[in-house]
Amino acid sequence: MRDAAADIARRAWLDCPRCAGAADCATCRAGRTCDTHWRYMLGSAGRNIFLQCPECLHRWWHDTGFGVGDRPPGIGDVSGFWTDVA
Ligand SMILES: [Zn+2]
Ligand SMILES: [Zn+2]
Predict the structure, then answer these.
(1) pLDDT tens, 5-24?
(2) What is the pLDDT of residues 38-67, one digit of tens each?
(3) Relative to the alpha carbon of 38, which ligand is closest?
(4) What is the count of structural domains for the chain?
């Protein structure tokens, strides 16, 4: 079931741990914002972001690897990982 916090305006282009679809996608491999392979970004805490895959509905935390865990939740800069769709 889709998470209540899932919002198509907040998306992240990260590989789903369950789906392997993006591995064969030229757009994803080029680091582009693929129209097919994206995940809902449900929230963030420190340097971790919480994602849901729209294909298999798997939810997981992703460690962005930056921020060193010292940012208070809510003001973390994750702008490099997701893009607003106007
Ligand atoms: Zn998935
Ligand atoms: Zn793709």
Answers:
(1) 999 999 998 888 898 766 78
(2) 999 999 998 899 999 998 999 999 998 875
(3) 2
(4) 1
Q: How far is CA 6 from CA 2, 39, 71, 79, in A?
A: 7, 9, 23, 17
The closest ligand to the CA of 36 turns out to be 2
Token look-up 């994602």 returns 51
Whether 33 is covered by a domain: the verdict is yes
Provide the whole-model pTM.
Answer: 0.69
- Domain range spanning residue 17? 10-77
- Ligand 1 centroid to residue 62 C-alpha, Å: 13
Please indicate, yes or no, if residue 4 is contained in any of the structural domains: no
